[in-house]
Design brief:
This protein is mostly helical and about 240 residues long. It has one domain. About 80% of the residues lie in helices and about 0% in strands. The protein starts with a helix and ends with a helix.
């Protein structure tokens, strides 16, 4: 199982190294096939923190704090709701919810064309709330933050840095919340994170090298197709539970 999880994590962090986001939305639907969500979500949190602790300094220069300031405020409110749902809702319903979200996000990505639509700053409210809730439940709120940022920021380097900063901010808050509720003290969690850490490091290094050589759009399109398959599989598993 660790070998399969390592391959999933490696691929997810290659995408993260290229784009500044995407590690959890790609890996979570696949890890959920072999691990309980209440274990997989804090596991990916620890891996995200590992990635940012080792490589986050590379992103700091381009962060657009003026854009994420208000987004972060609404994210905090959404996280309170998402954490409550993660703890109280059954595994079957969580799997169904993750499957639906993954399919909706993949459909958005596959049908989107051209330059991202410009978004007014007022969108930080609903997107921040939804992204915060999804971050706490599944660790996947980063893709919504990325949608908001891409509608506000046109510079590629600034966008990549700002996306990574939002993931880091989300991760720090979730460490506090998950620690307080006992999700980080599960048996085997720390050992599993340590075993997967080399895959995180290798993935980010490969992604950073590929960032300038391969168009990120081509990689992301393949990711969307993988997410369709993973989302359908999660719905089937939830229905069979």
């Amino acid at each position: 199982m660790i070998g399969a999880a390592a391959l999933i994590v490696l691929g997810a962090y290659v995408v993260y190294g290229m784009t500044g986001f995407g590690s959890t939305v790609l890996s979570m639907p696949l890890l959920a096939q072999m691990l309980p969500l209440k274990f997989a979500v804090p596991l990916m949190l620890l891996l995200d923190l590992t990635a940012f602790a080792l490589f986050g300094a590379r992103f700091r220069r381009g962060i657009r704090y003026d854009e994420i300031r208000w987004l972060a405020v609404f994210m905090l409110a959404g996280m309170a709701l998402g954490l409550t749902l993660l703890i109280r809702v059954s595994e079957q319903r969580l799997l169904a919810g993750l499957g639906l979200f993954v399919l909706m996000y993949a459909a958005y990505g596959l049908t989107r064309r051209g330059v991202p639509v410009a978004l007014a700053r007022a969108w930080c409210g609903p997107i921040g709330l939804a992204g915060g809730a999804l971050s706490a439940m599944f660790g996947t709120g980063g893709v919504l933050f990325a949608i908001f940022n891409s509608g506000r920021i046109r510079d590629k380097s600034e966008l990549r840095a700002t996306n990574a900063a939002m993931i880091m901010a989300s991760s720090i808050v979730r460490v506090v919340l998950f620690g307080a509720t006992g999700l980080l003290s599960q048996d085997g969690l720390a050992v599993c994170a340590l075993l997967l850490a080399p895959a995180v490091i290798a993935g980010v290094l490969i992604g950073n090298r590929l960032h300038a050589a391969i168009p990120a759009a081509a990689v992301v399109r393949v990711v969307y197709l993988l997410l369709v398959a993973a989302g359908v599989s999660l719905l089937v598993r939830a229905a069979a539970s």
